[in-house]
Amino acid sequence: MYTFVICSPFVEHPIVDVAHYDAGEFDIFIFEEGQPSNFLNKSKFNLEQYCKCLLHKLFTIQKSKIKPFIQYQCDKMQEPIVWLNKLEKLIDLNRELFTTKDQVIKFEKSLMIIEVMRDVIEQKKQAPDSKFNFVKLKSDIKQYNYEEKVSYLMEAKTEYLQNKPKIIDVNETPFDEKINLELDLIKSQQKLNKKQNTSNNQEVNSPKSPTKNTKSPTDSCRTSVGLFQFNCQTNIFVDVFFQLTKEISVDGKPLLNAGFNELAQFITDNFIDKNGNPLSLNTVKTILNTSRPEKRPSSEKRINLKIKNIPK
User: Fold this and answer.
1) Under a CB-based contact definition with an 8 Å cutoff, are residues 211 and 223 in contact?
2) What are the phi and psi torsion angles at 309 (to 5°)?
3) Which of 5, 47, 258, 285 lies in the 20 to 30 Å Cα band around 185?
4) DSSP alpha helix (H) spans, 206-294
5) 88-100 b/e with 16+ CB inside 10 Å = b?
6) Those residues with Cβ within 8 angstroms of residue 164's Cβ, 6 or more apart along the chain or in another chain
7) SS3 at position 7
8) Strand partners, 253
């Protein structure tokens, strides 16, 4: 049955050397006596023996386990689609070996599973997991300030390195490398912004300058002149307003009675962060949102106003 096998040119061919390791149910290993367990023939990988072992596995495995077997092998590959193509070719080249009814069923089922898995992998390449979708990530942080961008990007990078996808497109720049490039960019931009702010402040404060700042805080090209600057984390500062409107009350009414959108706009229009940067309206709204407690500071870092209710 296995005297002559037409080989398929597999590029990847993971095997288990049973002379040194225990083989699992879905591993490829030597089944014929007298053959080198490491699949080497004169220091070269014996591709014919590998092809024989693959076909033997398909002949002997239960039909219900063909899919998990092929998936198990794909998980070991750098290029699973290439391996699937070679497996498909191997089966097709040796279809004459599938003689019994049970073998023919396995033959047809294997080809069907190969086709389905290939489509799934291609779809994943076309629509990557949004969890590690860099385009979506950049869109999410667009309105964040400098510190929030750096923190968000570092968290995303750490999560990626801890949970790397099994299938990675070798033609794409890795997700963590894209993040490193983005971090370099925003850090450079931050340095330029600081230089610009310093230059603007020196110009306005110069005794030679007869001009006076007349811009409205809501002007799209506003500067730091005329705005109040706080010297702590943005979420710590905005949380003070959250406490005033949501947690501290007088006779059952909030100490500071302000609409959600109006308050967020007020904070954005009248304050700048500790680095002299304008605040993001979306960021302020997120911190003020009662359903987003994770965006507000922890109890250890919070400026706790303590008083829950104030008498009239």
Assistant:
1) no
2) -135, 135
3) 285
4) 234-242, 260-270, 281-288
5) bebbeebeebbee
6) none
7) coil
8) 250
Backbone angles phi, psi at 228, to 5 degrees: -85, 135
In residues, how long is the chain?
312
Please, are residues 286 and 276 in contact by the beta-carbon 8 Å criterion?
Answer: no
Q: Which amino acid is at 135?
A: V
Q: Map tokens 């080989």 to a residue.
A: 7
Q: Can you tell me whether residue 40 is helix, strand or coil?
A: strand
Q: Which pTM value belongs to this model?
A: 0.44
- CA distance linking residue 175 with residue 168, whole number of Å: 10
What is the rounded distance in angstroms from the CA atom of residue 121 to the CA atom of residue 80?
8
CB 63 within 8 A of CB 105: yes
Closest CA to 233 of 181, 191, 193, 279: 279
**Two tokens, residue 3:** 């005297």
Q: Residue 310 is inside which H or E element, if any?
A: strand 309-310
Token duo for residue 17: 């050397």
Mind listing the pLDDT tens digit of every residue in the chain (312 residues)? 567 899 999 999 999 999 899 889 999 999 888 889 999 988 899 999 999 999 999 989 999 999 999 999 998 998 999 999 999 999 999 988 888 898 889 989 999 999 999 988 887 776 655 567 888 888 888 888 888 888 889 988 998 888 877 666 666 788 888 999 999 999 898 888 887 777 766 655 555 444 444 444 444 444 444 689 999 999 999 999 998 998 888 877 888 888 889 999 999 999 999 988 999 999 999 999 988 888 899 888 899 887 655 665
State the DSSP H helix or E strand holding residue 254, giving kind and residue range, or none if neither: strand 253-254
3-class secondary-structure state, position 71: helix
